[in-house]
Amino acid sequence: RKEVEQDPGPFNVPEGATVAFNCTYSNSASQSFFWYRQDCRKEPKLLMSVYSSGNEDGRFTAQLNRASQYISLLIRDSKLSDSATYLCVVKWSGNQGGKLIFGQGTELSVKP
Amino acid sequence: EAEVAQSPRYKITEKSQAVAFWCDPISGHATLYWYRQILGQGPELLVQFQDESVVDDSQLPKDRFSAERLKGVDSTLKIQPAELGDSAMYLCASSHFRPGASGVQSSYNEQFFGPGTRLTVL
After folding, report:
1. Among residues A14, A85, A1, which one has the least CA distance to residue A43?
2. Each residue of B33-74: pLDDT tens digit?
3. How distant is the Cα of A17 from the closest Cα of chain B, in angstroms?
4. Distance from the B63 Cα atom to the nearest Cα atom in chain A, whole angstroms
């Protein structure tokens, strides 16, 4: 079983749609959680951290359920510029250097 | 805005040849990471440095891969000999993170990635 698993993609949605990505992680000792965005042939960039209370950043909402070891990302009113691969990322506790464990990514394509 | 620098951006080599990648982290960042990203997968940590010391190289194929950060600043990742399965994007990242640091915001430990080196082994 992979340490971080994401919905297989790609997701093809029209502009303005709401899209949700799901992610599960296997290590219950995981400490911190993130969503990264990666454009085609570019480096990953932090989109947002994910907190137990849930958090929102404009059109993006992230949720964490520690009991179920489940993370989600909701994008509302999707834009063409949201087209990218979204990576679910977990940081393990007890690690000296904050090792990040990445999911395989879910590709999103927003069409006009 | 400070960025992580990597070179070369692209490298094509034949199998059994040696290749080397260079990374210059953001100034002042103590921790440096090398990741490998195979097409269609997420990045996977190869090696992590705290200043000049290796703190995690558990996923580094040590029979052919080596990494160093001699002065605790820039770093080199080498593959010798390269194999077909080494074709991937090699990403370098850095962060302020220091073990035992307390009272800092989680954003202080954010990892910033460089543009990567795309390696093709023929």
Report:
1. A85
2. 999 999 999 999 999 999 999 989 999 999 999 999 989 899
3. 25
4. 22
